[in-house]
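Researcher: We're teaching a course module on how sequence relates to structure. For the next exercise, students receive a sequence and then see the predicted structure as tokens, so they can try to spot secondary structure elements on their own. Here is the exercise chain.
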Amino acid sequence: MTVPDERLRLIFTCCHPALAPDAQVALTLRLLGGLTTAEVAHAFLVAEATMAQRLARAKAKIRAAEIPFRVPPDDALAVRLEAVLDVLYLVFNEGYAASAGDALIRQSLCAEALRLTAIVASLLPGQAEAVGLHALLLAHAARREARVDAEGALVLLEDQDRALWDRRAIAAATRLAARSLRLGPPGRYALQAAIAVEHVNAPTAADTRWGHIVAYYSHLAALGPDPVVELNWAVAVAMAGDPDGGLARIDRLAPALDGYQYFYAARADLLRRSGARAEAAAAYARALELAGSGAERAFLRRRVDELRRSGV
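Model: And here is the predicted structure for the students to work with:
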């Protein structure tokens, strides 16, 4: 298998197995992914100073061990695939929901991550996770035109105009997601793709098959501890008809996600839906303190103002 794209070859080069997996991904995001140290830190849910130290240690190890910076031979690419997929996923994430700046979406990052993922999936059509990541990114990209309004304000998935969604991309994502599940025991990206296509194939928000999504999150959580997966699973449990159970699950995650804005935003949303408006306003306010994106800050500020105007 010859990698035909120069940037993709360099990403495979940076994901050297002599480095710890997290170090491979972080260093590649910084050097080749177009992300700043602060954005890489955001992707790993750590402080910028902590990430700067990790990157410095990774570079020092490369120098000390005299790790060669060269494109690996074809037979060495498979051992680097997981890290490469993680890099592409995190680049897309930063483009899809920017951690800083006024705009919610950085189209160039999304487009490049999707382009490179499509190449990887075409080169490795039998690799379930490569196919799954391609499906996942396509499903998310299909909604991009509806994620902000004409003024650039964030629009939540349930409120989006589904007529603006890219039906061709949704159809392709659905086919790829099904294929990734057939290729073998489902991994992280195959399961996330299955969740994403559930969302984009629902005719309306009310038609979302939350029971299916809960089941997929159950399988995803079983792959290994991940508080962000647990958070999304808790939201799905609530939306599937158990709001108290979902909120209880979220509250148990507080120690692990104390500095994570989406923890507070998710908790606030469930509290708002349950009528606990004062608690919801406080949680939205905390999410606002942690948010870096201008579009997300504006959305959270509107939520806080709405609750306060209602008499909280």
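Model: If you want an answer key for the exercise: The mean pLDDT is 91. Residues 259-312 form one domain.
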